[in-house]
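job 3f2a | input accepted
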Amino acid sequence: MPYNTFRIDVKAKYFVEINSTDDLRLLISTDEFKSNKRFILGGGSNLLLTKDFDGIVIRLAIKGIKVCEEGDDVYVEAGAAEVWNDFVQYNVNKGYAGLENLSLIPGTVGASPIQNIGAYGVEIKDHFFSLEAFEIETAEIKKFNKEQCEFGYRESVFKNKFKGQYIITSVVFKLSKTPNLKLHYGAIQEELKKRNILNPSIKDVATVVSEIRVSKLPDPSTIGNSGSFFKNPIIDKATFERVLNNFPDVVNYPAGEGNVKLAAGWLIEQCGWKGKQIGNVGTWKNQALVIVNHGNASGKEIYDFSELIITSVFERFGVSLEREVNTL
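job 3f2a | predicted structure (328 res):
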C-alpha cells in the first residue's frame, strides 16, 4: 500500500530497491530476475493494481540533481527517483523556466517521459532534452534524444515499442532563464488577475498552478487516487462536428492536423458522474476526471467503476475514453 497512491493492498513475489546502475547489473544477473516477470515502480502515482504480482517489483531510488550546462538555456539532469514536484520547485527557485505549469503533478522524474506528462498547456516533450536508460538485454546505458522517444499525447516508445526493455535512470531537461510563460490554458490567467499580478514570474505561475490543483484534485495522502484517470480524447474533425452539433457547449481544444481534443472531465460530468459513489469507489467531488478510493476498494472494483464511466460516455457522445493510468 505505501507504494501506490490508490492505496490498493496487493503483494509482489519479490521486491527490490535500486540505488545505482551497479545495482541493476547485479539484479539482472540473478536467477530470480531471469525466471520471473518484472515491473518497474516509480512513485506509484499513475498505477492501478488489480491483483497480486507474481514476479519482481523493481523500485528505483536513483536520485540527484545537477546543472550540466548553463547559459541563457540551462540543461538540468535529475535521477529517475527524484520526486517530480521537488524537481519542478528546484528549477523554479533557481529561475529556470519551462516546467512551472507542471507543478504538483504526482510521480517521479523517471516516469515523466514514459507518459509524456502534461498540464495547463505544457508537456514534458516541450522541454525534454535527453535521457539515459539501462537496457536490460545488454546491461548497457543507452541515451535517447527527443526524436528517439517518439513522444505523443501521454505516449512514448517506453510505454509501447520498448516497454519492458529499458529502465530509465536519469533525464535531462532544457530550460531557460528567459521565461516564455504559458498562461492561457485553464484558470491560470484568471487566478493571476484575482491576485492583481500583471507581470507574473515563474514562481507566481507555479504557485497559482499548485493552488488550482489543490482546489480541484484530492490529496493522495488523505484519499487514494491516481490523479487524472482518463486521457482527454482526441477526435477527428467529422466526429467533432457531430458532437458539437448535438452538444454546442462541449469543451474542446485544437489538437493539430485537423483533430480536436475534448475535455474528458466535462464529458464525464455531463453523464452525471461527478461526485458519484458506488460502494468504496467514486469520482472526486470537484473533478469528475479523478476516481478515488473511499475505503478499502480493490483494484478490480476501481477498474469496473471506470468501465461504467467509459460505457456511459460512449453511449451519450459516441466518444471512446481511454484510461491514462497503467493497469497491472
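job 3f2a | Residues 160 and 315 are 29 Å apart (CA to CA).
job 3f2a | closed
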